[in-house]
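Q: What residues go here?
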């Protein structure tokens, strides 16, 4: 009986992973803005990376997300952004003794704030100044393309959001702020 439960759980995880890949394979930039649960967006991103995190012994903790919290967005793009963000966290901590990443979600009356923090000791000013340049990467040649942050910047701009680095933290913390509704942002877009 226990073996059947393990097989069923594994099959579900594989199915979830495949669904996540299908959604992620589309660029999403032509999708309509729809109200979507923040929890489902984060879970979709986690499905795509959780086995790698486990393999490398990286602890990933997601705070309790306020019940019913939704944003008007292109869900595929926001999933891609979150995946890029936590992949960068992952790359930063894999060689550390303490390997952890925490994702906290909070809200204001108009915005959702996603804080991605990791065990790293911060980002240098030299790297911060180049972070969103096309093809810039801190990874060794052949390991990454240097497109992730540039793509992320486009996604942030498309959604009227912002990404800030918290230089006051002892660890590495990036804060992603996204409007709950696109009504005002879409009116301002050319």
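A:
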């Amino acid at each position: 009986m226990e073996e059947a439960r393990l097989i069923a759980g594994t099959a579900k995880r594989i199915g979830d992973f495949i669904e996540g890949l299908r959604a992620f394979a589309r660029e999403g930039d032509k999708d309509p803005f729809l109200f979507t649960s923040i929890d489902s967006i984060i879970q979709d991103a986690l499905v795509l990376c959780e086995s790698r995190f486990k393999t490398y012994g990286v602890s990933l903790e997601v705070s309790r997300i306020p019940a019913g919290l939704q944003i008007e967005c292109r869900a595929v793009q926001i999933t891609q952004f979150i995946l890029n963000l936590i992949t960068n966290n992952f790359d930063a901590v894999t060689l550390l003794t303490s390997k952890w990443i925490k994702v906290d979600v909070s809200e204001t009356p108009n915005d959702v704030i996603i804080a991605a923090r990791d065990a790293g000791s911060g980002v240098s000013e030299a790297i911060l100044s180049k972070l969103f340049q096309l093809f810039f990467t801190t990874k060794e040649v052949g390991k990454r393309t240097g497109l992730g942050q540039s793509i992320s910047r486009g996604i942030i701009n498309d959604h009227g959001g912002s990404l800030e680095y918290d230089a006051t933290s002892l660890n590495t913390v990036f804060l992603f702020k996204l409007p709950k509704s696109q009504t005002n942002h879409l009116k301002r877009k050319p």
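A: Context that may help when evaluating the design: Residues 17 and 47 are 6 Å apart (CA to CA). The mean pLDDT is 80.
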